[in-house]
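Full entry
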Amino acid sequence: MTAPVVAVIGAGTMGHGIAYVAALAGCRVCLTDASAEQLARATQLIDRAFDKAIEKGKVTAAQRDAALVRLSTARTPEECAADATIVIEAIPERIDLKQELFAALEHVVSADALLASNTSSLSIGEIAAPLAHPERALGMHFFNPVPVMKLLEIVRGPSTSDDAVARARAFAALAGKEPIVVRDTPGFATSRLGVVLGLEAIRMLEQGVASAADIDRAMELGYNHPMGPLRLTDMVGLDVRLAIAEHLHTTLGEDTYRPPQLLRDKVARGELGKKTGQGFYRWENAQ
């Protein structure tokens, strides 16, 4: 297949990771962010990620150089998406922001361009509601760290076309990801399962059942999870985990998803995980 032209809107942890894998896969990629500072930082993180990949023998210097030539930045979403055949938004988990972004970009992109959301829990149908052509919208939920994690959760909204799903699958294969396709329900498959485990681990820590390290070690050694739920929450971001839990608690109405007070307290103190240097663990190199 001809490599798509990809616009990534939002240059945070997920956005710059998506831009990295898309450029490495041979796509021409444009990355943008509302913060010029964050955009500059994202390009530095991408450079650093390529350097680490070369050190580990996963990428050659020639592959890095070619990928960086394919990667550009823009000041606005409209400028970034003008030539895109796939737009992937990785902006904050607020449905109003996502709706406004897609409604604005629909008038800029080509008639057959996909509009994909990296949301981990919000309704694709609601995000696509303002669109004149909601059949082009779907979820493409990547996992952190994007260059390492193989899964891509493709979320089919109520109006998403078969063609859009097929093109998302093709992009997943090009980017070296394994896709699953799920229906547009609260939390999809991965967030519903992952949040339950993560919240219960936080409750156990809150109740003094065991230390954070031992709770994580229980899942790593007892269930062969590559990373324990508390360390994973630090990687994802405690604020992100809280927002997903609140959304699922509101939409599903089950106490299973009620955020523990410990999680609320940590977020209120700004202890958001790896990106701030403190979460359930202390991180020396905050992002």
Remarks:
- The radius of gyration is 19 Å.
- The longest strand covers residues 151-156.
- The mean pLDDT is 96.
